[in-house]
Amino acid sequence: MTILIKNGRVVSATGTTAADVLIDGERIAALISPGDTSLGANLEAEADRVIDASGKYVIPGGVDAHTHMELPFGGTFASDTFETGTRAAAWGGTTTILDFAVQRQGERVQDGLAAWHAKAAGNCHIDYGFHQIIGGVDDESLKAMDELVDEGITSFKLFMAYPGVFYSDDGQILRAMQSAARNGSMIMMHAENGTAIDVLVAQALAEGKTDPKYHSLTRPWETEAEATNRAIMLARLTGAPLYIVHMSAKQAVSVLQSAKDDAWNVFGETCPQYLYLSLEDQLAQPGFEGAKWVCSTPLRSKAEEHQAELWRYLRTNDLSIVSTDHCPFCFKEQKELGLGDFSKIPNGIGSVEHRMDLIYQGVVDRQISLERWVEITSTTPARMFGLYPQKGVIAPGSDADIVIYNPAGRTEIGFHKTHHMNMDHSAWEGFEIDGHVDTVIARGLVVVEDDQYHGVKGRGKYLKRGLSQYLI
Ligand SMILES: [Zn+2]
Ligand SMILES: [Zn+2]
Q1: How far is the CA of 105 from the centre of ligand 2 (A)?
Q2: Number of neighbouring beta carbons within 10 Å of residue 333
Q3: What is the Å distance from ligand 1's center to 354 Cα?
Q4: What's the gap in Å between 392 CA and the centre of ligand 1?
Q5: Over residues 162-169, mean pLDDT
Q6: What global pTM score does this model have?
Q7: CA nearest to 252, candidates 211, 298, 203
Q8: What is the pLDDT of residues 305-354, one digit of tens each?
Q9: Burial class, 366, CB count within 10 angstroms (exposed 0-12 / middle 13-18 / buried 19+)
Q10: Which ligand is nearest to the CA of 296?
C-alpha cells in the first residue's frame, strides 16, 4: 500500500517546506520537492492512494509523553482504558503515547511492569511505550532499573508528593538517581513537597475548608519550587539526568532555567491545563463543580500570572515539552468520592485528545511558532525518550505517523461536540480552536479522515525505547 500526500506544507522542528510525502507500507519512503521527478514522473498514478493536502500542514504525529490509562488512584481507576484512551488520542492527532507502569511499595518492579503490558497488549490503537514509576526504592527495585533499561524502559518516575502512596524520601531519591547516573536512564520527578502539603491539607480540612479550590490553595507554588530545587540539587550531586513533569509554577521553572543555563541535564514539561486553565476560572467554581479540574500539580491563581510565563518558557526552551498528564475520571462516582473532602477527589484531567489542537491555538495566538508547535508536541518528546527518528519527524525511513492539519478549519471542544475520551464531561467544554485535525495516519494506516474513524484496536505496538538523545 502506497499513499501520496500531495501539495501540503511539511512542518518540522526546523522549518516548513512545500513537499509531497510518499508512504510505502508502514514507513515514509520519500519527501518530494515540487517539480522533482527523480522518483518517477507519474507518482500520482502509481500510488494506491492520493491525499490532497492543499492549504494544509503535514506534520509528524503527536507524541504524548505523559499519560495514565487505567491508573489506580484514590480507590478508583482512571476511566480511559488503553483502548479508549489511545483511540481518543488518535482522533486528536496523537499517534504515540508513553504511559506510566506502576510499582507500589512492596511490589516487584517486574510485576508492576508485567501488569501494564497486560493492560495494553492487544488493546492500543496507536504505538505505545512505558516509563516506570518506582514507588518503593530499595535494593531490589534499584537492580530492576538496570534490567528495564535493556527492555526499552529508559525513564523512571519518582514522587516527592503523596506520602504513604508513591512517595520517595530524599535518601531514596538519591539512590535511584545514582542508579540512573550509572545506567544512563532519565529520572522523571513529580516535584511537590508532599509532607508539607499534607500538613496544609489537614489544617484546611480541620478548619472546615472542604471545597475543591482548597486543593490548589494547599499546594502553593512554594511547595513546587522548593521540590524542584531539591530534585535539581540531588540530580547535580549524583549526575543523573532529570526531567520534571507537569510544571505549573513560574517560580519552579525559573529554578530549572538557572540549572539549564549551567548546562546540566535537566528538563521540564508543562501541560495544556497550566497554559489555559486557572484556580479562579475553573477550580473555584461554586459547589463541587471545580472537582473536574483537581489535578496535581494544581491549577494556579491567575493573579499569580503563571500562564504567560509558561508560554514564554516554552518559547525559550526552558520548558521542552507539552504533555497532557492525561488522567481522566468521571464526575459521577469518581470525582464525587471527594464530596465534602477535597483531598479525596481523584487527581487528574483528561486531555489526550486535545493537546495538538490546544497547543496549535498557541500558534494562532502568536505564543509560539508553527515549528515550535511540532517540536514541543512531537519531535522533542521523541528525542527526549529515545524514539527518534522512528517517531517525531517526517523523514525517509521514519514510521508513517502523519497528521494533516487544516489551519482554515475549526474545532469545537465539548462533551456533545468533539469528545472521544471515556469520561462523562469535558474539562475543556466550550474551548474553540482555529484549526482542525483533518487526517491522521498511524504507521501507514489512515485512522481518521473526514471526521470518521478507521483505526483498529490492537494495531498499536509496544515501543522499545533507547536512552534520551539530549544528554551531554
Ligand atoms: Zn505526577
Ligand atoms: Zn502524571
Answers
A1: 18
A2: 11
A3: 19
A4: 24
A5: 94
A6: 0.98
A7: 298
A8: 999 999 999 999 999 999 999 999 999 999 999 999 999 999 999 999 99
A9: exposed
A10: 1
